[in-house]
Amino acid sequence: MRRILITGATSAIGSALAWEYAAPGVTLILHGRRQDVLARVAQACEARGAMVRCHGLDVRDGPALQAWLAGLEPLDLVVINAGMNTHVGPGGEPEPWDEVDALLDVNLKASMRIAQAVLPAMRARGRGQIALMSSLAGYFGLPVTPAYSASKAGLKAYGEALRGWLAPEGIRVSVIMPGYVESPMCAAMPGPKPFLWTPDRAACAIRRGLARDRARISFPFPLNWGAWWLAVLPAALSHRIVRWMGYGV
């Protein structure tokens, strides 16, 4: 029986990933805060033959999160997907600090806590896989979403470091770097949304990348190629390109 944990399973990508992995012989441990949505996702996955266990908690509650993870059986795959976004105001107002504080707790600190909590069992078995949900915004910070970009850049660096550290022990770590994927969070973000993908398409690409043990799973092309160039070009030129694309404030 393969055991897969997906946090943020009520989000667009999270629910699509749950559906993608749902099959006989799979136990899905699904985390999400919206219990009505989580129940619908679980029902759909069970209809595909998977065993499903659901859990709802605020990942910012460190002790509760730690206690829950400690009680789980050893996991084969952990997709750390729970996240949130905030952005500058339409007139260039700073991001509200309470939102920035919550975002860093959810996107970065909780993600790191989850990874660290599941590692002992994986190291003891000499196998396991962890996927961290970063973003193409982790390559170069967008002016409209500074805190979000910072959190995703942090996850990218953290995941890459984990991969280098843990690969000799048989533990695979991948960083997922999506572009724009249809979701309420994506729709709320200011700026254009080029090369928008559906959640199902994104989930398929993620599963394929994880099966191949890709260090970075980035999409869609050519947006991922362009984002990579923003990171390596002189910063002054990259800022000009980003503003030309419509991400200025």
Write up what this structure looks like.
This protein has 249 residues and is an alpha/beta fold. The longest helix is centred in the middle third of the chain and has 29 residues, at 97-125. Strands 3-2-1-4-5-6-7 form a 7-stranded parallel beta sheet, with helices on both faces. Helix 4 (97-125) runs parallel beside helix 5 (146-166). It is 48% helix and 15% strand. The protein has helices at 12-21, 35-47, 62-70, 97-125, 146-166, 184-188, 199-211, 223-232, 235-244, and strands at 2-6, 26-31, 51-55, 77-80, 128-133, 171-178, 216-219.
Low-confidence stretches: none
Rg estimate, integer Å: 18 Å
Strand order of the largest sheet: 3-2-1-4-5-6-7
In N-to-C order, the SSE pattern is EHEHEHEHEHEHHEHH
Helix content: 40-55%
Structural class comes to: alpha/beta
Number of strands: 7
CA(first)-CA(last) distance: 50 Å
| Number of DSSP helical runs | 9
General form = globular
GO molecular function: oxidoreductase activity
InterPro entries: NAD(P)-bd_dom_sf, Sc_DH/Rdtase_CS, SDR_fam
GO cellular component, one term: membrane
Keywords: Oxidoreductase
List keywords for this structure.
249 residues; alpha/beta; 7-stranded parallel beta sheet; 9 helices; 7 strands; 48% helix; SDR_fam; Sc_DH/Rdtase_CS
Question: How are the SSEs placed, and which strands pair?
Answer:
Blueprint: E1 2-6, H1 12-21, E2 26-31, H2 35-47, E3 51-55, H3 62-70, E4 77-80, H4 97-125, E5 128-133, H5 146-166, E6 171-178, H6 184-188, H7 199-211, E7 216-219, H8 223-232, H9 235-244
Parallel strand pairs: 1-2, 1-4, 2-3, 4-5, 5-6, 6-7
Helix pairs in contact: 1-2, 1-7, 3-4, 4-5, 8-9
